[in-house]
Structures are given as C-alpha cells and as structure tokens.
Amino acid sequence: MQEKETSLPEEHGENTVAPETGSESPVADTSPDTAAEPTAEQRIAELEAELAQVKDQYLRSLADLENQRRRASEDVASAHKFAINKLAAELFPVKDSLEMALADQSGQFDNLKFGVDLTLKQLLSAFEKAQIKEINPLGEMLDPHRHQAISMEESEAEPNSVIRVMQKGYMVAERVLRPAMVVVAKAK
pTM surpassing 0.85? Predict the structure, then answer.
C-alpha cells in the first residue's frame, strides 16, 4: 500500500506532513499502554515523590515555627532578665549620694538635710523615668485594691475615707507594687 501524507498541526502552529497508514479514518488508540497515560507504577512513583516533597515542606515549616517560638521565648526571658537594668542605672546616683552623706563628718545638720533632699529628688526622678507612681490617698475613699487599712479612728470625715497615710503606696502601669498603708475613718 501506498502511504498518504496528511498535515497535522504542531504546537507552534506550523503544519507538518505525517505519514498515514492504509486506513482512511483516524481511530484513536485507546489501549492503556499509550505514552500519554502513565502506568500505575509511574503514577504511584509520582505521588510518592510529591508526598515526600510536601512532607519535607511540612517538616521545614514545623522546624521554622519551633525556631520562632524558641527565639520569642528567649527574647521574653531576656527582657525579663534585663528589664531592671534601666531602673538600676537610675538608682546608682541615689546610692552614691547616700554613701556620701554617711561619709560626711562635718557635723553640719543643714548641709546633711540639703543633701538628703537632693537625694530624694534623684530618687523621685528615677521613679518618674521608670513610670513608678506614688499612691497618696489622703481624703479619698478606701480602695482595697490600692490601700491597706491598718486601723480605724473616729473622725468627722466620711466613714471609710482615708484620714491618715502611714506609708505611701506605689504602682507601675496601673499595677500596685505596694498598697498604701492608711488609717480610715469610722462612724461615730
């Protein structure tokens, strides 16, 4: 038989001539062994390779997440460990001033009082920089979250109001470090 040539379009749109066998009607080959369809073993191998790749990506992501958690934990621990550094640096001049006052042998009370007053100002400045606020509740109503009543006295003031502050309290960012020790009024 004689071979006929028919044109088949290629991927790039060019026509090429392909030999045709004796049959005039083109019939698609539907056998399972065609090159276009992979065999079951090939498909399993492809899926296993894809699974290995996804598993590798998952393990890398998991390791990356664990590293981020570890770094964040170390950062928090470091922040807690060294948070006091700023306050300590502010307190060093206060300690130095107190040591100088104790070492003073001049016997001049006014100079000593002046030095202690300056030292108190240094301490208050350090507290301000550390955002430590005083709780001085004189005249306020008793707040058990910020005040600690140590006694009650009869007074003309409203019952449960603070009439005397025995020891000031302190707080940082709305958190009480030490409650104020107070005396409150009781009804007559």
Answer: no
